[in-house]
Amino acid sequence: MACTPICYALSQRKVTEPTPIQRQAIPVVLEGRDMLASAQTGTGKTAGFTLPMLQRLTAGPRPGKRQVRALVLTPTRELAAQVGDSVSTYGQHLALRSHIIFGGVGQQPQIDALKAGLDVLIATPGRLLDLHQQGHIDLSAVEILVLDEADRMLDMGFIHDIKRLLRLVPKSVKTCCSLQPSPMRYKPWLNSCWITRL
């Protein structure tokens, strides 16, 4: 059986077995269900959503114009860079284009990347909203939304930004939320979505 591009990327990284959180999360995302996963740093949770996200993007039909179909929101630029590395590593043999957007740096390179067309966008909420308000980004084609470390985003006061961004993506979007352990204080807010808890 021929090795898929994602499998080939995994083999290059010497990855042979999924971690427990990946074993639980990957089938849920591939099936197109909403998901809430709680896992410690270092358990492989990032690959747990990037791998099936990339698989779904390559399996589904691509619109004529390259549009953002997967959006990953993170609380910090450091985490955005980590997710970006994961997408680049596992998607290196795929015909997908990704970019990272965060504050504290010049906007023009980010605007240029958006104009060129992206499949996967990794962003912090504030800068993403700034660029949307300036008319540089369209989120109407998003199929998969990931809130990585959603609890940290809420702790940092991003709840209103997240609510605004949720109104910009289609209602049919599939949502993956990752949390640090002990997310119970966020249960009322997260229960507003149909979510499979892991």
Automatic annotation (TrEMBL):
<dbReference type="InterPro" id="IPR011545">
    <property type="entry name" value="DEAD/DEAH_box_helicase_dom"/>
</dbReference>
<dbReference type="GO" id="GO:0003676">
    <property type="term" value="F:nucleic acid binding"/>
</dbReference>
<dbReference type="Pfam" id="PF00270">
    <property type="entry name" value="DEAD"/>
</dbReference>
<dbReference type="InterPro" id="IPR014001">
    <property type="entry name" value="Helicase_ATP-bd"/>
</dbReference>
<keyword id="KW-0378">Hydrolase</keyword>
<dbReference type="InterPro" id="IPR000629">
    <property type="entry name" value="RNA-helicase_DEAD-box_CS"/>
</dbReference>
<protein>
    <recommendedName>
        <fullName>Helicase ATP-binding domain-containing protein</fullName>
    </recommendedName>
</protein>
<keyword id="KW-0067">ATP-binding</keyword>
<dbReference type="GO" id="GO:0005524">
    <property type="term" value="F:ATP binding"/>
</dbReference>
<dbReference type="InterPro" id="IPR027417">
    <property type="entry name" value="P-loop_NTPase"/>
</dbReference>
<dbReference type="InterPro" id="IPR044742">
    <property type="entry name" value="DEAD/DEAH_RhlB"/>
</dbReference>
<dbReference type="InterPro" id="IPR050079">
    <property type="entry name" value="DEAD_box_RNA_helicase"/>
</dbReference>
<dbReference type="GO" id="GO:0003724">
    <property type="term" value="F:RNA helicase activity"/>
</dbReference>
<keyword id="KW-0547">Nucleotide-binding</keyword>
<dbReference type="GO" id="GO:0016787">
    <property type="term" value="F:hydrolase activity"/>
</dbReference>
<feature type="domain" description="Helicase ATP-binding">
    <location>
        <begin position="26"/>
        <end position="166"/>
    </location>
</feature>
<keyword id="KW-0347">Helicase</keyword>
<dbReference type="GO" id="GO:0005829">
    <property type="term" value="C:cytosol"/>
</dbReference>
